[in-house]
Amino acid sequence: MPIIELDTNLPADRVPAGLEKRLCAATAAILGKPEDRVIVTVRPGLTMVLGGTTEPCVQLVISSIGVVGTAEDNRGHSARYFEFLTKELALDQDRIIIRFYPLEPWQIGKDGTVVTFL
């Protein structure tokens, strides 16, 4: 169950319509998870500084069970997310940061229990 959070200081009118759906589909493909299990939040218009400047930027946080736990995995994921984000948001790679958080099944609540028991 990947949980994707995209924070940006881009104003909402500069975030392409439907980005959340395309990011959901891209995440399913990149992480090899079913699209119906991906959760995406897009938060535009935030006050952000990256590299000492308030120029447009993005922070992408990727939390998931079993697929973001190694440097080798995340190097490949990172390349594919950077390709997606630079194309979708017209940002240079140096204006994007990605954070990966491996999760355990007991850390996700769903259907009145935790994923461990589903």
Identify the notable features of this structure and list them briefly.
single chain, 118 residues, alpha/beta, Macrophage_inhib_fac, acetylation, D-dopachrome decarboxylase, phenylpyruvate tautomerase activity
Structure description:
- The protein is an alpha/beta fold.
- It is built from two helices and six strands; from the N terminus they run βαββαβββ.
- The strands form two sheets. Strands 2-1-3-4 form a four-stranded mixed sheet, covered by helices on one side. A two-stranded antiparallel ribbon has the order 5-6.
- β1, α1 and β2 form a beta-alpha-beta unit.
- α1 (19-31) packs antiparallel against α2.
- The longest helix is centred in the last third of the chain and has 19 residues, at 71-89.
- The radius of gyration is 15 Å and the shape is globular.
- 19% of the residues are buried.
- The mean pLDDT is 97.
